[in-house]
Specification:
The structure is a single chain. By secondary structure, the protein is an alpha+beta fold. 21% of the residues lie in helices and 39% in strands. The chain has an 8-stranded antiparallel barrel, surrounded by 4 helices. The chain is globular.
């Protein structure tokens, strides 16, 4: 793959982010398997449209990286997600930018985000583009909505076998004895949503502590 083509792909993505200035506001936490049922019941009482039943999901996600030809530029990270439990659902290609440094008093993590629906050929396309598979996993759990906020409670599993080769996969193995809980909002830069998210997160204590994670310290 020529360096010019890779550079063009990076520039195209940068232009897309300028056209669609989407930001993700995020709080995260974990809860032990033993207590997850109590959290689900709490969320059912707080969230919208629970009269329609509990919404579940089962996804497979692959993380790709693409090295830049420009010195000092961080690799481009792309994620491809597909729904295992919905056979005709489109694949989702996602770009997640680095955490914004900005104002340290912000109550949530803030980062650029771009989601695009695509066909299954996106995986082969990214490989032809020069992307490397960094890791992959499956997640299974529950999703809730509260206004514009999305809350997911997910069990994360690792896959044995050759990355991105379904024929080689072995039975999934849980990473930990806990669930990942995420509270997020996608919006075009409205910092006021952070306070609304923190207020909602307080209603989930002491079952789970949702907080702003500084990935640069990990």
């Amino acid at each position: 793959m020529s360096t010019g083509y890779i550079t063009s792909a990076l520039d195209s993505l940068a232009n897309a982010l300028q056209i669609i200035p989407q930001h993700e506001y995020l709080l995260q936490g974990t809860i032990l398997d033993l207590h997850v049922d109590h959290l689900v019941q709490r969320l059912r009482g707080l969230c919208d449209n629970m009269d329609q039943g509990l919404q579940t999901f089962h996804d497979h996600e692959i993380c790709f990286s693409l090295l830049s030809t420009k010195e000092g530029v961080a690799p481009l990270i792309l994620r491809v997600r597909r729904a295992i439990d919905i056979m005709d659902a489109p694949y989702q290609l996602r770009y997640i930018g680095q955490q914004e440094v900005g104002d340290r008093t912000r109550p949530t993590l803030v980062r650029n985000s771009l989601d695009i629906a695509c066909t299954p050929t996106v995986i082969e396309y990214l490989k032809e583009l020069g992307c490397n598979v960094d890791f992959e996993y499956t997640s299974r759990g529950y999703m809730f909505r509260k206004g514009r906020m999305k809350i997911t409670v997910a069990k994360i599993f690792k896959l044995g076998g050759v990355p991105s080769n379904p024929e080689s996969y072995t039975d999934p193995i849980p990473f930990t004895q806990s669930y990942l809980v995420e509270l997020s909002v996608l919006t075009a830069g409205q910092d006021g949503i952070g306070k609304e998210m923190v207020h909602f997160a307080e209603q989930l204590r002491p079952l789970v502590k949702l907080e702003k994670i500084d990935y640069k310290r990990l």
